[in-house]
Amino acid sequence: MELKQKNKYSYELELGKGDANPRIYANSEIVSTLEAEYTQHNSSLKQLENLSMLPGLKGIVALADIHPGYGAPIGTTTASDLKEGVITFAATGFDINCGVHSLIHPLNAKEVSEKKKQLAEQLFRDVPAGLGIRGKLVLTKSEMDEVLEKGAAFAVKKGFGAKKDLKLMEEEGCVDGADADVVSDKAKERALDQIGTLGSGNHYCEVQEIEKVFDEKAAKIFGLKEKGTFLSIHCGSRALGHQIGTDYLPILDSAVKKYGLKIPERDLVCAPIESEEGQKYFSAIKAGSNAAFANRFVIGSLAKGAIAKVFGISAEEVKTFYDIGHNTAKIEKHLIDGKRQNVLIQRKGSTRGFGSGMNEVPLKYRKAGQPVIVGGSMGTNSFILKGTKRAMKETFGSTIHGAGRSMSRSQALTKWTGEQLLAELAMKGILVKARSVKGLPEEAPEAYKDILSVVEVMHKAGISEKVAKLKPLVCIKG
Amino acid sequence: MYSTFENKADIGVRGKGTSLNTAFSECAKAMTSIMASLKKIAPKKKIVLEVKASDTQALLVAFLNELLFIKDAKQMIFSKFEVAVEADEHGAQLKAICFGEKINSKRHELMTEVKAATYSQLKVAKKGKEWVAQCIVDV
């Protein structure tokens, strides 16, 4: 294994594949960790080596939040040739279109801090979170089909949020080409009462203070100002996405044999993009993505309602900021080998971060570049970045999604108790309300890499630039 | 015997036993133990599952994922399993009697939801006299 430094913040995993060698954005500390872990089973670098063996790859990019996942590392973007390439389960994962939906409050940090407890309780009541919790919206199967094909627009039809806000979402809240028929009845049945639910694990609904603005011009375009407040919802397609993955795992497993594909590990099951299996799986991912957009849009609307109740304002005064996924698969046009061509881009724990002027960026933000919402954990900062033109040239317009774990969940559970963590966070002025206090330490701030250094790598590499830093005030967990 | 093992972002689940059936049952317990306190789940109601797959490894993943489907679709969680696995060169199948009850957030000490079982670090094998069934689950 050879990791060649290309410039201060980028490295290349030398595998003799030319431009398709994995490129890693990191600082020396992240690289040391990656190298030290290399010999461990399932390490990030080994997963990158394995991933690079798949056919038809035009490039692999690993971001500074890279950490081992199943099959592919989390914090990775792959670009595959549409004719020669495969669609891989591991490069998108089970939580299809997991992402972040953010709102801007009209209230300042002082006003919010004064009613922190009330706000936490209201959000906890209004945003269903945790294992086994059902949503307020219970769909019929035909309504679920509509969710799968129309995404967040379905939520608007049901009275959640406003149509104009769809413009402020990646893909305007709906990926074209989703076919509800390629999603099993089991997947639909499993999630009929889950649209508008947060889930558990690393998912959250967090009220944040805009602590610092780094880029005044971009912040003005984004509508962010210091001491203002913000709310971020982190979740995905819930059990619907999980069941799509479950259903397609054996289909892709059979496709590997059927098409004689050579994969180094079974967790890289895949199908040629052009094959029937590949096309159906791709369409199912699109359907799962639409369910995630609808889910976050409904939660966004519930959160707006909660804020309105606590502060005696109208829900319309709470503005939608942006919605972006980080477990996705889509066809995008990128400059490869000197020409612009369509490729399948799969992002796993990686956010699209397109530069200024791109049509895919909402008109409102197009001059600045696409907003990128980088989520921290309960006690740490989150960041708003902007996509850059450099990212379009180097990373297929992709960047980080969070800090990335540094400690396993079981290690974290032995290190802290839930009560201890709640008290420590309260000392820092962060009010956490969790359905499972026992499981809370899994998401302890120290179980993650230092988000500041991860963000700094991407900023200094010119891939996504800092616009604002957010500080948590209230965090709702499952 | 059931246990969980380290994996940075997710969690590994492992079941061991003197038979393949026990290893599967124990692996299911390992997965449930991530979500709730096993000893708090009373084996009051039973459901019977039948699962098929191309081989015993894929069967383990399909079995665990079927339990997760029932968790969401029927709001049921289980603490005791009686599993009978059959496998030959054409494929593998199992019948499982699962004992448990409706999810109760007050009594079951609920923790992290498992999203799905994966093919990562998937192993169903006999080592000496002992069977091992394991994989990584996405949380």
Q: How many E-type strands of chain A?
A: 19
CATH architecture of chain B: 3-Layer(bab) Sandwich
SS-derived structural category of chain A: alpha+beta
Nearest-integer average pLDDT of chain A:
95
Number of domains of chain B: 1
CA-based shape of chain A: globular
Radius of gyration of chain A: 21 Å
Just give the CATH class of chain B: Alpha Beta
Q: Strand content of the residues of chain A, in percent?
A: 25-35%
Largest interface: A-B, 50 and 42 residues
Q: Give unreliable regions of chain A as ranges.
A: none
Q: In sequence order, what are the helices and strands of chain B, one letter per element?
A: EEHEHEEEEE
Alpha carbon gap, first and last residue of chain B: 22 Å
Quick one: CATH superfamily of chain A? tRNA-splicing ligase RtcB
- How far is it from the N-terminal to the C-terminal residue of chain A, by CA? 40 Å
Number of helices of chain A: 14
Would you identify the regions of chain B where 5 or more consecutive residues have pLDDT less than 50?
Answer: none
Number of helices, where a helix is a run of at least 4 consecutive DSSP H or I residues of chain B:
2
What share of residues are in beta strands of chain B?
A: 35-45%
Helical content of chain B, roughly? Answer: 10-25%
Shape designation of chain B:
globular
Label this structure with key terms:
heterodimer; A: 478 residues; alpha+beta; tRNA-splicing ligase RtcB; eight-stranded mixed beta sheet; seven-stranded mixed beta sheet; 32% helix; 26% strand; globular; B: alpha+beta; Archease, Possible Chaperone, Chain: A, domain 1; three-stranded antiparallel beta sheet
